[in-house]
Design a protein that fits this description.
461 residues, Carbamate kinase, VC0802-like, 2 domains, 41% helix, binds aspartic acid, binds magnesium ion
C-alpha cells in the first residue's frame, strides 16, 4: 500500500485533472490519496477573509467563484448521475457553512487564528470530495475520509500544528484499512488535522505534504509518492543555472535541508514522520509519470563531489544584534530570541559570534523584529543593524563537513568570481553549509559553485 499526495499545482484545469484521474485509476487502487486544494483555491479562501472583513458585499462573490470553479470541473468531467449529485450536494453544504463563517468574520470584525484555519481548510475538503466523485463516476471504489472521521489528531496549534503521532497511529488504520480491504481508494484532504478539542488546525502553507507523510507513517505505507508538476529536486534553480540537473537520489537529511529553500518541492516537515519508519519518498511528475523523479530514503548514494545541490533563498533579511562578549553573558540569546518569539515572529536561523548575534528572518519580519528588540529594557545589546538585499546560499550534501576540501572548493569558486561572502554558518547539520552574499552577487555565485561541483571533470574530491 502506498500513500500518494496530489499537489494543488497538478489540480489545475480540466485536462490535468482528467490526467490525474486516469493515473489514479491505473496506479492507485487499494491506496490512499492525500489531496491539496485545487490550484489557487487556498489563496482565494485566505484573501477572501480580508475581503469579507472589508465589505459584506464581497462575500457572495467569493462563494460564487468557488462554486463556479468546482462545478465547472465536476460538470465537464462526469455525467449527471449519483456521483455528480453527491458531490454537488456536499459542495453546496460546504459553501453554505463557509458563507456563514465569512459573515461571522465581517460581524465580529476579527480574523482569529481559529477562524483562519477553519476557512483555509475548505479547499482540501472540496477537492477530496470532488476527486472521490470523479473516481466513483469512473466506477472505481473511492471513499472520502475526513480528518475528524479518521482521528487525525494534532497538538492544537493553529497555523502550525503538529500531528500527535501516537494517537494518529492508533486511530488511522482502524478507519482506513476497511477501504483498502475492498481494493478501494481512500481520499483524505491534506493540510489540516483536528485538535483534541475538535478544532480544525492547519499544518501551515503547503502542509498537505506533511499530512501525507503523517498518514504514510501511521498506516505503515511502503512508499510515499508526492505527485507534482515537476520532476523533483534539482541541483540548482534551473531558471538561474541552465545546466541544473535532476537529483535522482537524496537522503532524508539532504531533502530536509533542501525543502527549506524556495523551490517548494516539499513542505519542510515532510521528512519528519516517515524517516523513523524508513518509508521512502518519491517525487513524481504527473506530466511525465514514467520519469524516475527524485527518490529520498536513508541509503542515498553520495554524489561524486559530495554536493548534491546549490540552493538559495532570496526571502532573507538580517538583524545584527551587536553586543560584547555574547558567549560570556548567560541568558542574552534567550532574552533576544524570547522577545522576538513572543511577538509571533519566526526566526529562520541564528549565527553568533562573541560580538554579534545575527538573526535571519523572512524579509517581511526584519523591521518587526527590530521594533520588538527596541522594547527590551534594560537593553542587552549595544546596537541593532539591519542588513537587507542579501541572499542565503546553501550547499547541500550528506557528509560535506567531514569531507576535506568541499568548503574550500566552494569558497574558492565564489571568490573566483569576485564575490564577497558576508556571513558563514557551519550549521549543526551534517548535510548543509550556509552562507550569505549580496543579492546582486547571487546569480554569479550560484553559477560558479554549481559549475565547480557539477561541470568541472577534474573535480572529484
Ligand atoms: N492548499 C494548502 C496551501 O496551498 C496546502 C497544500 O497545498 O499543501 O498551502
Ligand atoms: Mg496548495
Amino acid at each position: 500500500m502506498k500513500v500518494v499526495k496530489i499537489g494543488g499545482g497538478c489540480l489545475k484545469g480540466i485536462k490535468n485533472i482528467q490526467r490525474i484521474i486516469a493515473l489514479v485509476a491505473e496506479r492507485c487502487q487499494g491506496d490512499c490519496l492525500v489531496v491539496s486544494a485545487l490550484n489557487g483555491i487556498t489563496d482565494t479562501l485566505i484573501t477572501g477573509m480580508e475581503k469579507a472583513l472589508a465589505a459584506e458585499e464581497n462575500i457572495p462573490k467569493i462563494i460564487r467563484h468557488l462554486e463556479t470553479v468546482h462545478l465547472k470541473i465536476a460538470g465537464d468531467l462526469m455525467p449527471v448521475g449519483s456521483c455528480f449529485e453527491s458531490f454537488t450536494k456536499a459542495l453546496s453544504t460546504g459553501l453554505k457553512d463557509l458563507e456563514r463563517l465569512y459573515y461571522g468574520l465581517n460581524f465580529t470584525r476579527e480574523i482569529t487564528p481559529r477562524m483562519h484555519d477553519i476557512i483555509a481548510s475548505f479547499g482540501e475538503r472540496f477537492s477530496a470530495q470532488l476527486l472521490t466523485a470523479l473516481l466513483c463516476a469512473k466506477k472505481l471504489k473511492a471513499a472520502t475520509r475526513m480528518p475528524h472521521q479518521i482521528g487525525l489528531l494534532t497538538d492544537g496549534r493553529y497555523g502550525d500544528a503538529t500531528a500527535d503521532m501516537k494517537r494518529v497511529r492508533s486511530n488511522l488504520p482502524k478507519q482506513i484499512n476497511p477501504v483498502f480491504r475492498k481494493k478501494g481508494i481512500a481520499v483524505v484532504p491534506g493540510f489540516y488535522g483536528i485538535s483534541t478539542q475538535g478544532e480544525i488546525t492547519t499544518f501551515g502553507r503547503g502542509g498537505s505534504d506533511y499530512s501525507a507523510a503523517v498518514i504514510a507513517a501511521a498506516l505503515g505505507a511502503e512508499t510515499l509518492e508526492i505527485w507534482k508538476d515537476v520532476d523533483g529536486f534539482m541541483s540548482a534553480d534551473p531558471r538561474m543555472v541552465t545546466e541544473a540537473e535532476l537529483i535522482p537520489r537524496l537522503s532524508y537529511a539532504e531533502a530536509a535541508e533542501l525543502s527549506y529553500f524556495g523551490a517548494r518541492i516539499l513542505h519542510p516537515r515532510t521528512v519528519e514522520p516517515v524517516r523513523k519508519k524508513k518509508i521512502p519518498i518519491v517525487i513524481k511528475n504527473t506530466l511525465a509519470p514514467d520519469n524516475p523523479g527524485s527518490l529520498i530514503n536513508s541509503k542515498s548514494p553520495r554524489h561524486r563531489t559530495v554536493i548534491k545541490s546549490v540552493a538559495h533563498d532570496t526571502d532573507i533579511g538580517i538583524l545584527k544584534v551587536h553586543a560584547s562578549a555574547v558567549g560570556a553573558r548567560p541568558g542574552i540569546l534567550a532574552r533576544v530570541a524570547g522577545q522576538i518569539t513572543e511577538k509571533g515572529i519566526n526566526i529562520k536561523s541564528v549565527v553568533t559570534s562573541q560580538t554579534c548575534i545575527s538573526l535571519l528572518f523572512s524579509k517581511k519580519d526584519v523591521e518587526k523584529a527590530r521594533l520588538a528588540l527596541k522594547e527590551l529594557k534594560p537593553r542587552p545589546y549595544r546596537r541593532l543593524e539591519k542588513l537587507e538585499h542579501v541572499a542565503l546560499i546553501g550547499i547541500v550534501g550528506e557528509g560535506l563537513l567531514k569531507k576535506k576540501g568541499v568548503a574550500a572548493r566552494c569558497f574558492t569558486a565564489v571568490a573566483g568570481c569576485g564575490v564577497n561572502v558576508e556571513m558563514i554558518s557551519f550549521g549543526p547539520s551534517r548535510a548543509a553549509l550556509y552562507f550569505l552574499v549580496k543579492m546582486q552577487d547571487l546569480p554569479g555565485a550560484i553559477t560558479a559553485i554549481h559549475s565547480t561541483f557539477f561541470s568541472d571533470p577534474r573535480c572529484v574530491l
